[in-house]
Design brief:
It contains 13 helices and no strands. The protein is mainly alpha-helical and 274 residues long. It has one domain: Rhomboid-like (Rhomboid-like fold, Up-down Bundle). Helix 6 packs across helix 9 and helix 9 packs parallel to helix 11. The longest helix is centred in the middle third of the chain and has 25 residues. InterPro entries: Peptidase_S54_rhomboid_dom, Rhomboid-like_sf, Rhomboid_protease_S54.
Length: 274
C-alpha cells in the first residue's frame, strides 16, 4: 500500500451511492453486532465491527444509566459524575476523557442522535482505514474534544473550568472532519455533508447544554489527523496507513497533551491542590 486508498474510496462511493450524506454505508445487518460468526466474517471483510461495538457499549451504558436513575439515584449520580470529563479534572483524572465518550444524558434523543450519526459515517471510514486505524482516529478525536473544552476554559474561565461534558459527539465530529477531507480529495460532492455539519454546529444556539467546544475540538483534530494521513510528509506516503497512523497519530496525541498541560497552568482547581 503506497498511499491512502483513494481508489477504494471511489469504488465504495460508486457501489453504495454515497452522493448523499445520509446514504453512507448503513446497510450492514444488525446481526453482525451480536453473532460471533458474523462478527468474524465482518472483521475479515472490513465491516463495521468497531463502529458496531462502540454503539453496543454506548447503548448498554445508557441503559445502565436509566436503570440506576430510577432504582438507585445515588448510584446513578456516582456512576455518571465519576465518568464525565471536565477541564478542571482532565489532568488529575485523565481516564474521564474516554469514559465520558460512552456516557450520555438520560434523554433518549442524545444517545439516539449520536449513534445514528456514528452509524452514518463510521462504517465507511472503518472500511477505508482499517479497523484499528479507524479506532485510533475515533479516540484521538475524542481527546481533541476534551482539548477543545479545556481551551475554552482558558478563554472563558467561569464557568469553563467547571463545565462537565459527556457523550460521543466530540469523537463523531472528528469522523465528520475525516470524511470531509477524504471526499474532498476524491472530488465527491460534500455539500450535503457540509449542510449536515453546519446544522450540528448551529444546534448549541438553539438547544442549551450542548458542549459545542468539544464538537469543534474533535472536528479540528479529525481534519488535522486525516490531512496528515493523506497529504503528509512525501517520504511517508509509501508507508501503510497503519504505519502512518502510528506516526501521525502519535504526533497529534503528543501535541494535544502538551496543549492540555499548558492550559492547565491556569487551572484554578489544580493550583488550589498544589
Amino acid at each position: 500500500m503506497t498511499s491512502f486508498p483513494y481508489g477504494v474510496v471511489r469504488v465504495v462511493i460508486m457501489q453504495n451511492g454515497f452522493n448523499r450524506f445520509g446514504n453512507f454505508n448503513n446497510r450492514s445487518p444488525l446481526r453482525t453486532l451480536v453473532n460471533p460468526q458474523e462478527i468474524r466474517k465482518s472483521w475479515r471483510s472490513g465491516g463495521p465491527v468497531i463502529t458496531g461495538s462502540i454503539i453496543v457499549v454506548c447503548v448498554a451504558v445508557w441503559l445502565i444509566e436509566i436503570i440506576l436513575r430510577f432504582l438507585a439515584p445515588e448510584a446513578y449520580m456516582d456512576f455518571v459524575f465519576g465518568g464525565v470529563v471536565s477541564p478542571s479534572l482532565v489532568l488529575m483524572n485523565p481516564w474521564r476523557i474516554f469514559t465520558s465518550m460512552f456516557l450520555h444524558s438520560t434523554n433518549v434523543l442524545h444517545v439516539l442522535f449520536n449513534m445514528m450519526a456514528l452509524w452514518s459515517v463510521g462504517p465507511l471510514l472503518e472500511r477505508l482505514m482499517g479497523h484499528w486505524q479507524y479506532c485510533a482516529l475515533y479516540f484521538i478525536s475524542g481527546l481533541g474534544g476534551a482539548v477543545g473544552l479545556t481551551l475554552w476554559a482558558v478563554i472563558e474561565p467561569a464557568p469553563g473550568w467547571y463545565t462537565y461534558a459527556l457523550g460521543a459527539s466530540g469523537a463523531i465530529f472528528g469522523l465528520f472532519g475525516a470524511v470531509m477531507v477524504v471526499f474532498r480529495r476524491v472530488g465527491a460532492d460534500i455539500r450535503p455533508m457540509l449542510i449536515w455539519i453546519g446544522i450540528n454546529f448551529l444546534m448549541p444556539f438553539v438547544i442549551s447544554g450542548i458542549a459545542w467546544q468539544a464538537h469543534v475540538g474533535g472536528f479540528v483534530t479529525g481534519i488535522a489527523l486525516t490531512e496528515l494521513l493523506t497529504n503528509g510528509i512525501p517520504r511517508l506516503k509509501r508507508k501503510s496507513v497503519a504505519t502512518r497512523m502510528w506516526i501521525y497519530g502519535g504526533f497529534i496525541v503528543a501535541a494535544l497533551i502538551v496543549i492540555l498541560v499548558l492550559c492547565n497552568m491556569s487551572n484554578p482547581r489544580l493550583n488550589l491542590s498544589l
